[in-house]
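To make this tangible, we now present a fold written out as C-alpha cells:
***
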Amino acid sequence: MPGPLDEALAFFRESSGSRDDMLSAMERRFTADTRWENVGVATTVGIDQARQFVAGFLGRIPFERCEVVVHHAAAAGNVVLTERSDIFYGPDGQEMLSLRLMGALEMDGSHIVAWRDYFDTSGF
C-alpha cells in the first residue's frame, strides 16, 4: 500500500503535463476541505476555489504545459516535504516561468488535506 510520500510524488507526476492534467490531478486528490496555501499569494479551500486560483494564474501566465521536477522529498508521518521546480511552457514550447518551491503536503491516503508552498513571490 502506497504511503504519504508515494502518494505525494504520484500527485506531482500526475500534475506534470497539460493544464488539464494539472486540474485533473487536483480534482482526484483534493477534497471539499483541502486547504491549498501559496504563502504570500493566496489560500484556497476545496477544488472549486483551487480551480478559480488556477484560472487567475492562467490569465497572467497562459501556459500550455507544466513540468514538476521534485529535487528532494521527505516524509514524517502523513506530512511530506518537497523541494521542487514548477516549470511552465507556452504554446511555442518555450519556458515562460520557472518557480523553485518548498512545499508541505498533509496526506490522508491518496488525498491532500493541506498543501502549503513557499517561494519567492516578488514576481507576483
The chain is about 30% helix and 50% strand. The chain has a mean pLDDT of 94. Residues 44 and 52 are 9 Å apart (CA to CA). The longest helix spans residues 46-60.
